[in-house]
Write a structure and sequence with these properties.
Pfam families: SPP1_portal
Strand content: 15-25%
Distance between the termini: 99 Å
Helix content: 40-55%
Protein name: Phage portal protein, SPP1 family
Strand order of the largest sheet: 1-2-6-7-8-9-10
Organism: Ligilactobacillus animalis
Shape: flat
Oligomer: single chain
């Protein structure tokens, strides 16, 4: 779809711009307004995550009829269960070279990268996409923060590779006017409500300082329009069920026959009683037809379809089958969600590598002396991004005894680092664990030498005693 100016919107709402053109105020205004239009869907999804559903907007029932508005927050449940499974365990991110790995972990700790990955995963499930924005703080240290697609976007070039050209962040001030910045490879340019570009500043990173993270190729959230219709139907059905329950409690008693004066009839009316004079006597409650069975069937089907279409495991199904289940049997029930998480993991790994490429170039990572000597001998220099190891671990009930047996059986078959990766419940960083093991071995060796009688010290003993 073409926009005003030279920009256009590609498939999956990707913003594109000619790679040999410069962004103008007209182009920028068109992109911002289009993002605002798309953001109406983003904001609706976030409102649902916060528990605000269409049932609240239903017209009121007439004649004081029961009017329950029950909203079950399935959106929050789906997002939290899936992302607790996907990123509830912090991913392991490391480099082989010790010196480079120390700098990497320092950046990760400074910017709380593992926590931000968890937050990014949640936002991607709500919006379909989100951004990691890199910047320098007051101390000139590189930091990372999250930017939501409701007020930011990346403009890619129109080539086959779709390389990022600009990152735009904006907000509205107290006067409800747009203000923001456009970031390119070389500069950062502010703009005002008229989308006039101001004086530029140099971009110290030398790259577009933002990376897009996505839920899937289509940038679809975990709950799309079809899923939302199911959630709204569930809320409507259960609200109607509550209305029927209230109607039963408020049912009128029909009283026929008997000697009734006007005062008695008046009091009966105040207490939901209908009385008429008749030759015979009878009393019963007036009830409308009960559709409880039909409502239950509808609710069960809707809930089942909700979890099937989102591919998120219904934990109630697991709990209903008892507590004596193995981790493997639980994993089988989570197979659909595992497949969904595998797709998301691949997208996140690609985005993380892009982010760390910018970070490493800015930090100018240098190898340890041992690594530098190896490069000299081999005549090659390894790209640290290619050496980066990123491992996501699914958050499932763990059998530590089983993990220990697997790790033990790998002895002598794989490297020590790979062997330690078989213990994700106990070892967060295999490389750090190997270093601790080396330290323990060194300390044990030193203690053994000191305590060995063969290492008797002759200090303070004269020459004759030594000969004896």
């Amino acid at each position: 779809m073409a926009l005003d100016g030279k920009g256009m919107v590609g498939e999956n709402d990707i913003f594109l711009f000619p790679q040999d053109e410069q962004l103008t105020s007209v182009d920028l205004e068109a992109f911002v307004k289009e993002n605002e239009r798309i953001s109406s869907t983003y904001r609706r999804n976030m409102e649902m995550y916060k528990g605000r559903y269409d049932i609240e907007k239903e017209p009121k029932k007439p004649l004081n009829k029961p009017d329950n508005r029950i909203a079950i927050n399935f959106a929050k449940y789906l997002v939290n269960v899936f992302n607790g499974f996907f990123a509830g365990v912090a991913p392991q991110i490391g480099l082989k070279d010790e010196k480079q790995n120390d700098e990497l972990q320092s950046f990760n700790n400074l910017s709380s990268v593992p926590d931000k990955i968890s937050d990014l995963a949640k936002l991607c499930s709500i919006y379909g996409r989100a951004y990691m924005f890199l910047y320098r703080d007051e101390g000139a240290q590189l930091r990372a923060t999250i930017s939501a697609p409701t007020n930011s976007f990346i403009i890619y070039d129109d080539s086959v590779s779709h390389k990022p050209m600009y990152f735009v962040r904006y907000t509205k001030n107290k006067d409800d006017e747009f203000v923001g910045e456009v970031h390119s490879d070389n500069e950062s340019i502010p703009f005002n409500n008229d989308f006039e570009l101001g004086e530029s500043e140099a971009n110290p990173l030398g790259k577009v300082p933002a990376i897009e993270f996505m839920e899937n190729d289509e940038r679809l959230p975990l709950y799309d329009n079809s899923t939302i219709s199911v959630m709204n139907a569930i809320n409507k059905a259960i609200s109607q069920k509550a209305n029927d329950t209230d109607a039963i409690a408020d049912a009128y008693l029909f009283f026929k026959g008997g000697d009734l004066d006007e005062e008695v009839i008046k009091n009966m009316s105040d207490n939901r009683v209908i009385a008429i004079a008749a030759g015979d006597s009878d009393a019963k409650f007036l009830e409308r037809p009960n559709g409880d069975g039909t409502q239950e069937n509808l609710l069960n089907r809707l809930v089942r379809n909700l979890f099937q279409t989102t591919m998120v495991t219904n934990l109630d199904d697991i709990n209903a089958t008892g507590n004596n289940q193995s981790g493997y049997s639980i994993e089988l029930k989570m197979q659909a969600m595992r497949s969904l998480a595998a797709v998301k993991e691949r997208k996140f790994v690609i985005s993380l590598r892009k982010m760390y490429r910018v970070v490493f170039e800015f930090l100018k990572l240098k190898k340890s002396l041992k690594g530098q000597l190896k490069d000299i001998v081999t005549g090659s220099i390894d790209d640290p991004v290619n050496e980066l190891k990123i491992t996501f671990t699914r958050n499932l009930p763990k059998n530590i005894e089983l993990e220990a047996n697997v790790a033990k059986n790998l002895e002598g078959i794989v490297s020590k680092q790979t062997q330690l990766k078989a213990l994700p419940s106990l070892v967060d960083d295999p490389q750090e664990e190997m270093e601790l093991m080396r330290q323990e071995e060194s300390e044990a060796l030193d203690n053994a030498v000191k305590n060995n009688p063969a290492s008797y010290q002759f200090e303070g003993v004269d020459h004759n005693e030594k000969q004896e």
